[in-house]
Every structure is written in C-alpha cells, then in structure tokens.
Hints:
The structure holds two protein chains of two kinds. By secondary structure, chain A is an all-alpha fold. Helix content of chain A is 78%, strand content 0%. Chain A has one domain: Arp2/3 complex 21 kDa subunit ARPC3. In chain A, helix 2 (30-48) runs antiparallel to helix 5 (98-116), helix 2 (30-48) packs parallel to helix 6 and helix 4 packs antiparallel against helix 5 (98-116). In chain B, a hairpin with a 5-residue loop joins strand 1 (78-81) and strand 2 (87-89). The chains are: A mainly alpha, B mainly alpha. Chains A and B meet through helix 3 and helix 8 of A and helix 4, helix 6 and helix 7 of B.
Amino acid sequence: MKKSNIATLIVFFLLIPVTLFFGSKLPGRGYYITGTAIILELMIPFFMAFEGKKPQARELVVIAVMCAIAIAARVAIPIPNFKAIFAVIMLSGIAFGPEAGFMVGAISAFASNFFYGQGPYTPWQMMAYGAGGMLAGFCFAKGRLPKKPLTMAVFGFLAVVLWVGPLLDTSSVFLMLSDINWNSLLLTYGAGLSVNISQAACTVLIMLLFGRPLLDKLDRIKVKYGMMEDENGL
Amino acid sequence: MGFERCHPAVNFIYFTTVIAGMIVFQHPIFLLISFVCAFIYSIKRNGWKALIFNAVLLPCVVAFALYYSSYTHFGVTVLQQNMIGNNMTLESLVYGFVLGIVVAGVLIWFSCVYSVFTTDKVVYLFGKVSPRLSLFLAIILRMVPRIKKEAKRINTAQQGIGRGANQGNLWQRIRNCIRIFSMLITWTIDSLTTASESMRSRGSSLRGRKAFSIYRFDNRDRAYVVGNFACLTVIFMAVMLKQTDIIYDPRIIMMPVTTMSYVFYAGYAVFCLMPLGLELWTEYRFKKARRAL
C-alpha cells in the first residue's frame, strides 16, 4: 500500500471519529469548529496523494467546480429528500479517485448547509457524504467495477441505502436519543430507511440519465491534462 | 473615493467580520440591523441595479419562509392546519424568515464585496501568504462573471440553429436547457484548467513573486481599524451577556431587552454603517474643499 492510502485509512477510521466524538462534547456552536477541523484533516490524504509533486491550482479548480455542481444539485431540486447531490459526489469519486471524492462530498455538504441551516449534524453529514464519494472511488478504481450507467445506478442505490444513509442515521442516534437500546436503534434506522430509499431513487435516476455524459466530460479532462493520474485507488 | 481606497487588509477584516456577524447572529434585531445597513450600503455602491436586485430578493425571502414552514413543523404555536393535516406553526414560519433574511443579507453584502474588493486586492493580500492560494482565489472569483458571459454566448449560438433556451415547445425547451448546461460544464472545467495552467506557466505561483500594488497602510487605515475593533468589542460584550442568543424551537425564547441592549444595537448599527459613513464623509470633505477653491 502507498503512503497516501495508509493516510486515508488512518484519517477516515481514526482521526475523524475521534474529532466527531470530541466535537459532540463542545458546547454551543462548536459544530463550526468540528466541521472546519474535519475539512483540514481531509486535506492531509488529498495532498499526500500527490507524493512530492504538490497539487496544482488546476486540480483544486476542478474540485471546486465539482463542489459547485454538487451544491447546485442539492439546492436546485425543490423536493425534500430527493436530491441529486449523492450522484454528483459519487461520480466525481469515480472519475478522480477516493480522495477527491471525499473532498467533494465533505466540502459540498458543509457549503450547501449554508442554504439548509448548519447544525450539530453538519460534521456528520460531511463525513457521510465524503464517505459516499470515497466508497465510489474505491469500488470503481482499477476497473474493479465497469463504468456503465446500469452498474453505477445499482451501486448508487446500494451505497445510499446501506452506507451513506445509515451513517447519517447514526448521527441522529447520537444527537437525539437520550438512552440507546436495541428498540430505539431499530426505530431510528427504520424511520431513516424510507428517506434513504427516496434519496437512493433520485441517485439511480441521475446516474441513469446523466451518469455517462458527466463521466465522459470528467474523463476527457483527465486525459487531456493528465491530471490526478493516480489510477491505483486504494 | 471611499471605502475601496482603504488598505485591502482593512477591507478584508471589515467584510469577514460583518458577514460572519450576519451568519452567526439569529437574533431578529441584530439580523434586521445588518440587513438594512447592507441594503442601504449596496444602493450607495451600485445605484439602481442594487435597488432592483434587493427588491427582487425580498419576495424570495417571503416565498422561502412559506416554503420552509410548509414542510418543517416544529414549534408549539399552531397557526392552522394545511390541506394534508400538518400543523403550520409560528415558530417555523419565523425561523424560515430568519433563514431567508440571512441568505439574502449575505448575498447583498457580497454584492458590496464584489464592488469594493477587486481581484488585484485578493492577489495582493494572499500572494504573500501562499502564491498558489492567491492564484486559486483569483481564478475562482472570476469564475461567476465568466460563466455568465459564456452562457449568453452559447445560447446565442444555439439560437442560430434553432436550439435556444426559448425556442420550441416545453419539452424541447427543457432539452435545450439541459444541452446548454452540459456545454457550460465542459467549457467551465476546460477553461478554468487552461487558465490556471497558463497562469502557472507565467510564474504566478512561484515563491517570492511580488504582486503589483499601490497600497500603503496609513493613519486613516489605522483609525478605521481602531473604530472597527471598538465596535467589535461592544458586540462581543453583547455575545457574552447572551444578548444575541435566541431559541426558536420549541418556542421563541430570548433575553429581555434592557437599556444596555440599546447600546449593543447602536454599536452593531455603527459597525454596519461604518463604510457608508466613511464614503459620505469623504464626499462631503471633497465638496467642501472644491467650494473653497
């Protein structure tokens, strides 16, 4: 394994849970601090992925454009819990690798919450959205899964229902439940299931309709400028 | 003449603090003070255009509040039930207004930022910290106006072959809009990448590069900073005395308004009106000096 991959694992499984744990103990508007801390931690593997040659402004510019599209995808659709943001995050993860997917997810979650209201759940959303992008980048790297619309749609559905959604529900477990037992856990995840399925349906729709064109665009940029040539993934 | 002649650092400090205040304070009086001041200042800076922009924003705020309260139902004061039997509550309606005003206020403040804070100031300020960051910021700040221009161009070209955003029936229009949007994404990523590459080739991200600047930190800037932080101290006192705190869920709870509160409101108003005051004062001095000739 490469250094940057080890760093990604350490950040994702150690640093961010620790930050979330201590961040949830901060009083008042501590979630702003936690959110910023998570963004800074995410930068570490992203910058290490370039091993020696530092990331150029062009990589950051592409990430910024993907974040802008993701935010627009969340804000533009006026149906609650039917947002295209997951699809855009996963597509950028598929095109540019797990680290970039994580960055796009976390930053767009933070930035789009300025429209929806920040709260103690912001750091959790950042982690969950970023995790979705990272999983997509990991599963489609090195041709592990074929980059076809149908595969991406099925993957998107499963990822939202089984991975991103439960991560978001976990935040409501910690933030809302006063005592945690099996019954209340089942209730919370059960209540989250319908929301997750409606989000997943939107993801499937976007992947089928816009997955291939958007991915073509991003791949073209990647080939044309030779950027983020890290095909290894995790 | 006025605030844009101050040192870029002064502009930067002022706008970060005032926009942070707009976002963080959810207390209605602080919110309204900042919103009204932004409204007046943007009209002073941008004239009729700003008035139209702000006037369009206001109905958007109302629409957002109605939209927000129609699908969030926290709060105890039930106003009425809507057609699917959900409670429309006073608290969620008020909170919808608060969110709408925050977003609208930040947009208006940003319209002032754009007119005061030119790209060369950004490059001057951040070029010393990190050349790469300043390059990135310069590109991002130019992004929105460039995309607008290009969208118009693409639409004109597409209209020429009968595929404009306003041609054909509804279905075709939607199709055309999606096509134009797709072209725009391709163009944006491509041109931004080219821009950053060409700027890099010209050495704009090299260490030790100096940005051209005509800025000097003089006594007027010092006086402004002192005034700025005096107002900030008053506002911090308000924060520490919990005068800025308010709870909307499940019931609207805020600290009682005392005599001291008026001092805090006045401090915040002075803080928000400082650049406007500076500009009016400079204009007055200019006119007086001209008359004396």
